[in-house]
């Protein structure tokens, strides 16, 4: 399909640009972790969305490759610091920065990444620089707010559905919304169109996180590529667990509380037992319904945009639909 060919061309151009970014400096221990993390790959969804959004209104997405890549640098900054907070040993199949170097180096390298992201955004055209930086700063603060809420949830017995959805909106979804909004702003789109794209990104971002929650429990092990049931083992307050705690009664409630309180257990047995409780409470169906609602809200926003390049809208639509139906 021509859409797939066009998308791959944009993706390849973006990847080459990111891999050519220069993060060298002294002391090398500060800068080497940045290059290491940036070269581990990833889907590059956020900068890709910025380029596709720009393409809805104007040709020549190559003009904004560096500002788009700034979003990826910022995203990886958050991952570098998140890995420290989560004590995660592996990122994209390789050692995390704090494991390969140490915590202090990872903190400082992450700080430099945030500075680099701002530096890269300075390549925006002068008349669009102020709104771009203002939107980015707001988004960066919101991502940190979401991460703090996620950490707060670890020590809370009860988290409501509304609180959880707000947390993932901040931690995950607003950066997708910003990516699309930035592309539109840099292309000179109307404020209305830029906001519709932002809302599109936020809604599908929440849908994507709900999809991740679902896959962690119900994914095909062969396709998922990582441990199924990791959230269950960690008692992570995902939408599935929050809904199960809300709905469970009688024997199901007692069993769920017993597994949540257990300090010693067989991992496979816990995953199997909690998954069975989810099945009895129809948690999979409820999660899928909520996820579908957010995807629908998101895609409805696209109908309100006055695009200049309908073929570019088809590429954006196809990409996000594919992500929404992924199995890993």
Strand order of the largest sheet: 1-2
Q: Outline, from the CA principal axes?
A: globular
Q: Which class of secondary structure composition applies to the elements?
A: mainly alpha
Write down the CATH class. Answer: Mainly Alpha
- Could you say what the CATH architecture is? Orthogonal Bundle
Alpha-carbon distance between the termini? 23 Å
Quaternary state of the chains: single chain
The average pLDDT value, as a whole number, equals 94
User: CATH superfamily assignment?
Assistant: Farnesyl Diphosphate Synthase
Strand fraction band?
Answer: under 5%
Q: Return the string of H and E elements.
A: HHHHEEHHHHHHHHHHHH
Rg for CA atoms:
21 Å
State the total count of DSSP E strands. Answer: 2
Task: Please give the domain count.
Answer: 1
Identify low-pLDDT runs.
none
CATH topology: Farnesyl Diphosphate Synthase
Quick take:
The protein has 328 residues and is mainly α. 75% of the residues lie in helices and 1% in strands.
């Amino acid at each position: 399909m021509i859409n797939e060919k066009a998308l791959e061309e944009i993706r390849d151009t973006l990847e080459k640009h990111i891999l050519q970014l220069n993060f060298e400096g002294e002391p090398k221990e500060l800068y080497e972790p940045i290059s290491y993390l940036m070269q581990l790959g990833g889907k590059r969804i956020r900068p890709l969305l910025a380029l596709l959004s720009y393409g809805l209104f104007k040709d020549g997405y190559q003009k904004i490759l560096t500002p788009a890549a700034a979003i990826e640098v910022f995203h990886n900054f958050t991952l570098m610091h998140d890995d420290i907070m989560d004590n995660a040993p592996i990122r994209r199949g390789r050692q995390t920065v704090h494991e390969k170097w140490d915590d202090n180096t990872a903190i400082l390298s992450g700080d430099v990444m945030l500075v680099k992201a701002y530096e890269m955004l300075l390549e925006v055209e002068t008349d669009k620089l102020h709104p771009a930086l203002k939107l980015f700063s707001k988004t960066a603060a919101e991502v940190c707010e979401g991460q703090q809420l996620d950490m707060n949830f670890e020590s809370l017995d009860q988290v409501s559905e509304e609180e959880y959805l707000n947390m993932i909106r901040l931690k995950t979804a607003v950066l997708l919304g910003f990516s699309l909004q930035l592309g539109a702003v840099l292309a000179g789109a109307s404020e209305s169109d830029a906001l519709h794209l932002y809302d599109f990104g936020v809604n599908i971002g929440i849908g994507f996180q709900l999809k991740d929650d679902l896959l962690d429990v119900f994914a095909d092990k062969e396709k998922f590529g990582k441990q199924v049931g990791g959230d269950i083992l960690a008692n992570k307050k995902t939408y599935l667990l929050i809904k199960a705690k809300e709905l469970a009664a009688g024997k199901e409630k007692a069993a769920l509380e017993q597994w949540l309180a257990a300090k010693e257990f067989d991992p496979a047995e816990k995953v199997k037992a909690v998954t069975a409780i989810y099945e009895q409470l129809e948690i999979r169906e409820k999660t899928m319904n909520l996820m579908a609602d957010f995807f629908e809200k998101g895609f409805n926003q696209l109908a309100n945009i006055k695009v200049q390049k309908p073929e570019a809208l088809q590429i954006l639509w196809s990409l996000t639909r594919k992500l929404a139906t992924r199995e890993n």
